[in-house]
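Run log // design_07
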């Protein structure tokens, strides 16, 4: 390569490095209840890719999904994460902040005092969807009545156009919240809330940490593969596939922790080891600090909520991806 070519390659590499640095840096959005909130820049890339699929369907469809997959979804996930954070404070756990990203939200939460307390923190997020559903339903009722002449709401998303746009938008608000509530609770695969509740329930019942970890792995792998298949069939859903990959990756990390006798450093189990709950169980591995910040996700004990499996799972138009 010539000197000029080498210089151009270096400049290109430097430009790519700067772009990568920008994308890797979260965007501060401010604070709520003294909790810092940030948005990962990659959210806009994934949003743009999703909206590309809706362009052939017309401007109203693009507008609908711009709102649904943008501010509506971000607001829904933010309230969910605030539920986790406020519950964590209630049980005495440290809260560092919230990160919104393409797969939903991450609540950075320190070690909880017990599996029972951790279960409450995990449950508090999905519970926020109940009042959100009621709000969107109250908004939908008069619009639905104006469209159909009936107060008996049948939940569906009509083709978005000027005459039905609010109907479509408010119906999406209801569907997203129902879907996130069900997906996070009924899919017991870590790092979803249902996976945390499964682990907390087993530990609370006295099951040894190592056995609990193996049960979690055996449950999460087929569920993750099932979500992956759903991401391809009957419609391609990019974010759902990404969520499945995240579930399988987190499960593989848990498997590595079991094989290395390092459960004490995994965020799901560090509280049990630090409190002595694993004593006498033949557990090995150095006791980790509260909310150990080790090789697992590179952050404190984290509550993760996927944005996948939402609207799409409830029968929204093909232009929409999911939601987790």
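design_07 sequence
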């Amino acid at each position: 390569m010539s000197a000029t070519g080498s210089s151009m390659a270096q400049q290109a590499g430097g430009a790519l490095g700067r772009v990568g640095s920008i994308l890797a840096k979260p965007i501060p959005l401010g604070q709520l209840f003294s909790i810092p909130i940030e948005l990962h820049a990659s959210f806009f890339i994934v949003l743009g890719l999703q909206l590309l699929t809706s362009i052939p369907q017309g401007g109203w469809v693009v507008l609908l999904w711009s709102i649904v997959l943008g501010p509506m979804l971000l607001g829904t996930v933010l309230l969910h994460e605030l539920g986790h954070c406020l519950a964590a404070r209630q049980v005495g756990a440290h809260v560092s902040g919230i990160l919104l990203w393409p797969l939903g939200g991450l609540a950075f939460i320190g070690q909880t005092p017990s599996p029972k307390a951790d279960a409450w923190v995990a449950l508090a997020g999905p519970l926020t969807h109940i009042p959100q559903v009621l709000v969107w339903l109250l908004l939908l009722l008069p619009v639905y009545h104006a469209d159909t002449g009936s107060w008996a709401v049948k939940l569906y998303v009509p083709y978005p156009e000027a005459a039905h746009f609010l109907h479509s938008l408010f119906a999406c608000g209801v569907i997203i919240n129902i879907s996130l509530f069900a997906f996070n609770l009924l899919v017991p695969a870590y790092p979803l809330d249902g996976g945390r509740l499964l682990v907390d329930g087993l530990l609370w019942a006295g099951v040894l940490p190592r056995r609990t970890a193996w049960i979690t792995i055996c449950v999460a792998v087929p569920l993750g593969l099932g979500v992956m298949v759903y991401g391809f069939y009957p419609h391609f859903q990019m974010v759902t596939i990404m969520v499945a990959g995240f579930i399988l990756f987190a499960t593989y990390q848990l498997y590595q922790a079991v094989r290395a006798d390092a459960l004490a450093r995994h965020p799901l189990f560090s509280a049990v080891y630090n409190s002595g709950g694993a004593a006498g169980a033949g557990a090995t591995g150095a006791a980790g600090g509260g909310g150990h910040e080790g090789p697992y996700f590179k952050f404190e004990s984290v509550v993760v909520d996927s944005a996948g499996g939402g609207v799409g799972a409830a029968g929204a138009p093909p232009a929409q991806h999911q939601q987790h």
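The longest strand covers residues 95-101.
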